[in-house]
């Protein structure tokens, strides 16, 4: 009886820990940055973007982001998570 209760408790705690991880990933805020690409490393996924006020940010592309069509000097709009991972990047006219 006690073993069964203990194993149920372990399973419940395990499930709660996964639910907490899922909530924390959803809680990451998505931000938008408009600026000019200063540096780009297609092999490393690092993109340096300078906004209109002169602030420089280095962001990292996720595995779904294609950087091949972009180059230094391109004006872009970047959506990224609070941990600096690019969710989307589009060239602006």
Within the CATH hierarchy, at the fold level, what is the topology of the domain at 30-91? OB fold (Dihydrolipoamide Acetyltransferase, E2P)
In angstroms, what is the radius of gyration?
20 Å
Strand content: 35-45%
SS summary, helix count? 1
Strand pairing plus helix content: what structural class?
alpha+beta
* CATH class annotation of the domain at 30-91: Mainly Beta
Low-confidence stretches are none
- Major sheet summary line: 5 strands, mixed, barrel
Based on DSSP secondary structure assignment, what is the total number of beta strands?
5
Structure notes:
With 93 residues, the chain is an alpha+beta fold. It has a domain at 30-91: OB fold (Dihydrolipoamide Acetyltransferase, E2P). It is built from one helix and five strands, in the order H-E-E-E-E-E. Strands 1-2-3-5-4 form a five-stranded mixed β-barrel. A hairpin with a 3-residue loop joins strand 4 and strand 5. The termini are far apart.
């Amino acid at each position: 009886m006690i073993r069964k209760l203990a194993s149920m408790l372990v399973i419940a705690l395990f499930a709660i820990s996964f639910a907490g991880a899922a909530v924390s990933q959803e809680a990451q805020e998505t931000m938008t940055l408009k600026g000019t690409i200063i540096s780009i490393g297609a092999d490393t996924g690092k993109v340096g973007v300078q906004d209109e006020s002169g602030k420089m940010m280095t962001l990292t592309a996720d595995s779904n982001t294609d950087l091949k069509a972009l180059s230094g000097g391109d004006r872009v709009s970047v959506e990224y998570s609070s941990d600096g991972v690019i969710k989307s990047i589009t060239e602006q006219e």
